Amino acid sequence: MKQEVSIMEDGSRREDHMAPNVVSRLKIKNECIRVVLAETLCTFIMMVFGLGTVAQVVTGNGAFGEYFSINVGFGLSVAMGVHVGGKVSGAHMNAAVSFTMCVFGRLRWKMFPLYVFAQFLGSFLAAGTIFLLYYDAIHHYCGGNFTVSGPKATAGIFATYPAPYISIYTGFFDQVLGTAMLLLCLMALADRRNQPVVSGGEPVGVGLLVLLIGISMGSNSGYAINPTRDLGPRVFTLMAGWGMEVFRAGNGWWWVPLVAPFIGGVTGALIYEAFVELHHPDLKSTKTQKSAEDPECVPLEKCKNGSTEMSL
Question: CB–CB of 184/269 below 8 Å?
């Protein structure tokens, strides 16, 4: 009997040892691979929820939401994306953000292609997922005629297109300004020496920022403000049946959300640094001033007999 019990105990110990071993073998320790996986997944999450809200609004003829629903959907989807990959890759989910971080020395340049690849892949896969999920609804809505423009256009579910009255010049400025506001505010939210978002509240702060941009600057061209978010689904629609018109529409609009956000991102971050971050007091002088003004900061050796001696 004792022998059987010991055999059972040995078996359970082996199983306990085997489980950690299997997990440790599956665990990826390479930083680049970990970043690519996390960035792909969080971009996929953001785009599935975001494109899904657009698909519901378009195919439902307003029965399942309206323009404000799209703004809320993308804001919440960005928040969820930050939750998924924020502590691993930073959850940029936007090539303009990654580019700006490289320009300001907050991300190594060798990581930039990996971020762009992951973001493009996540966006492309998300477009394919929403296409499969809403294929019947899209087919019913447009009668199987996949068009880029017109009363039953459906390409706008996936990529952004300018309003008919918007010129290329206005659209370019629209994308530059929208991305500049995005990066300017992101720099402020992350600035620990100013008024940063509370620890753990980063997803909510970034999501509200995207919502704000959408409800204030979204009507001109759908506020892509993100090269990989726009290009991935656009390439998918090219392959899925919408054809080369996805690149010809809007007087060749496709290059605007691809180029303008890079300019806008660096511009917005530069403005914040020039107006605010560059002029923060030196940390040493701040500590010295605080010690001189606040009795609670006076070293203990300067406190005698319950009274505080301060040199003026």
Answer: yes
pTM of structure: 0.85
The CA angle 47-202-91, to the nearest 5 degrees, is: 40
* 217, 177 Cβ separation under 8 angstroms: yes
In degrees and rounded to multiples of 5, residue 275 shows phi and psi of -90, -30
What are the two backbone dihedrals, phi and then psi, of residue 222, each rounded to the nearest 5 degrees?
80, 10
**What three-state secondary structure class fits 86?**
coil
pLDDT at 88 over 50: yes
* 155-160-166 Cα angle (round to 5): 115
CA distances 210 to 71, 111, 127, 181, Å, are 8, 25, 20, 10
What is the spatial distance between Cα 118 and Cα 120, in angstroms, rounded to a whole number?
A: 6
Write down the pLDDT at residue 305.
43
- As given in the structure block, the two tokens for residue 183 are 């990066």
The C-alpha atoms of residue 125 and residue 48 are separated, in whole angstroms, by 9
Q: Determine contact, residues 205/188, Cβ cutoff 8 Å.
A: no
Each residue's pLDDT tens digit, 105-144? 999 999 999 999 999 999 999 999 999 999 999 999 999 9
What span, in angstroms and rounded, lies between the C-alpha atoms of 227 and 101? 15
pLDDT digit string, tens, across residues 175-223: 999 999 999 999 999 999 999 999 889 999 999 999 999 999 999 999 9
Q: For residue 29, what pLDDT band results from cuts at 50, 70 and 90?
A: confident
Q: How many residues does the chain have?
A: 312
CB 95 within 8 A of CB 261: yes
**Tokens, residue 144:** 């199987």
Cα 218 to Cα 2: distance, rounded to the nearest angstrom: 74
